[in-house]
Structures are given as C-alpha cells and as structure tokens.
Design goal:
Distance between the termini: 70 Å
Oligomer: single chain
Low-confidence stretches: 113-122, 150-166
Number of strands: 5
Strand order of the largest sheet: 1-2-3-5-4
Order of helices and strands: EEEHHEEHHHHHHHHHH
Mean pLDDT: 75
C-alpha cells in the first residue's frame, strides 16, 4: 500500500529541495541529496545510489529506507535518506559542497516534524560525522551516534517510553542469517526469509552490523563463524578461477590457482618462486 506522504519545500545553497515527511521525520530522496552535493541533474540519483551501494556497511535502517512514491510513470520504489544518512553521504562524497551540506542536514533535517524543533549539539554532530569514518575511529563513535539518533526517533506528541522496545534485528536473527548462509542461501534470499534488508544481512555476515544494547547475547559459535569464512573463501577462489580460466583446456592453470590459494591460507607450505622458475 502506498504511504500518504507530505512534502515541503526547502533550500540549500540556492538549490530547491523537496523534503519528505515520513514517519514524523524529514528525509531526502537520493536525487535531492545528489543535487545538493553538486552532482549533475542527469547523474544525481544514480550517483548517490552508487555511492550508497559502495558503502553499505556505513548505513543501517535509521539512515535509509525504501518507500513507494508516485511518479509520472506510476508507483516506484524510492530510496530515501534521513539526517544521519545525509551526513554520512556528505562525508563519503567529498565534494566541494559536502561540509556545508552536512551542516545543513544537521539543522534542517534532524529536527522533528511535530512539536518543538530539536537540534543536534556541535559535539553530537561531530560524533555522527566521526561514525562515518573507516577503521577504529568510526567504530568508537558508532554506538554514541546510535544513542544520539534516539533523540529524534519520536515526535513531541509521542514521548520515549520508559522501557526500550525490542530491536527489529537481534542476535538471534544474526544466528539464523549466518546459518542460512552456511546452508547455501544467497544474501537476498536470506533477507526475504528473515524479513530484513539485504544490506543488513551483508553487514552481519561481515561482522559489521551495529546491534542495539538490547539485541541480546551473541549466539554464534566458533564453528559457525569459521563455516561462514570458509564459504567466503570458497566463493573468492571460484571467482579467481573464473577470472583467469577461458576454458577447460586451462586445467593446469586452474590447479595452480587453487594451489596458490591454499598456500595463502597456510594449508600448504610456501614455495620459492625464483627457484621454481629455473
């Protein structure tokens, strides 16, 4: 069923921006984000969607979602981004407008639709920006960023309940996702079976999903984690073989590649390449 959405006009750096009211919060389409960041009109939507897909592990369900919007060609699935999602996209895009757009998203999009306007403090904004960074600096800031985003998860007419609600994605869901992956299912099929997004499945399989504090205890075992890793390695070896093999006539090369992969994994002792060429 199509959601009834309210839109209202805003402006960033001389660019007219159509802001969506979705679930009591402000969101931008990928095209709107691209135009704000200086992408050409022809490339704005595709450019931002490509940027998002290259960095799936930087986003979760509070940053972006897909809704149905009515277009001139009919109803269409459209990806939209919240304030935190826009801040992350600004960081990743590194365009001339990126820093200014991050500040604008902080002030104009983070506020609640209903009730008194709420703004991030300077320190809170910097924390969300840091959460988009790679490596240890980003990991250290992500939990703090999640707590900050909870300030904007309810409108003024719907105060935060005294007890936290159960998260949609728990450690039990993680266990099921990993088990299904080991059983041979693809990431898209796992998402459909568990009712979660493919990016969420991808993050869990790579150990990058940021669980909420009340998501439960880790249920994975060393054996399960090893089995997931082995399937990734097997897939990588298969892709490597297919990349270099033109036909079954290259069986010797296929065997050499497989042997090289085993040596990388430590399953076989290393060889002296210079000596083997003589």
């Amino acid at each position: 069923m199509q959601l009834a959405l309210t839109t209202f006009a805003a402006e960033f750096n001389g660019t007219a921006v159509s802001v969506l009211d979705h679930a009591g919060h402000k969101w931008l389409t990928a095209e709107a984000v691209g135009l704000c960041l200086g992408y050409s009109p022809a490339n704005a939507r595709v450019g931002i969607n490509n940027l998002y897909h290259r960095h799936l592990d930087r986003f979760d369900e509070v940053d972006t979602t897909v809704i149905k919007l009515m277009t001139v060609t009919g109803e269409k699935d459209t990806r939209i981004f919240s304030s935190s999602g826009c801040v992350t996209l600004g960081w990743l895009s590194n365009t001339a407008r990126a820093a200014e757009f991050q500040r604008w998203a902080k002030h104009e999009l983070a506020a609640q639709i209903a009730g008194e306007k709420v703004a991030l403090t300077y320190d809170e904004f910097n924390t969300i920006v840091d959460a988009a960074k790679p490596g240890e600096a980003g990991r250290a800031a992500r939990q703090m960023a999640m707590n900050i985003q909870q300030r904007f998860s309810h409108t003024a007419t719907a105060p935060m309940p005294a007890t936290a609600t159960a998260p949609r994605i728990t450690r039990a869901i993680e266990f099921e996702a990993l088990s299904l992956f080991v059983a041979g299912l693809g990431q898209g099929a796992i998402g459909k079976q568990l009712g979660i997004s493919r990016p969420a499945v991808n993050c869990m399989l790579h150990g990058r999903y940021r669980f909420s504090p009340n998501a439960g205890q880790d249920r994975t075992t060393p054996a399960l984690r090893a089995a997931v890793a082995e399937r990734f390695v097997a897939a990588d070896l298969e892709r490597l073989s297919q990349k270099y093999l033109a036909s079954s006539a290259n069986r010797a090369m296929e065997d050499a590649l497989e042997e090289a992969g085993c040596r990388v994994l430590g399953l076989l002792p290393p060889i002296n390449i210079a000596k083997s060429l003589h």
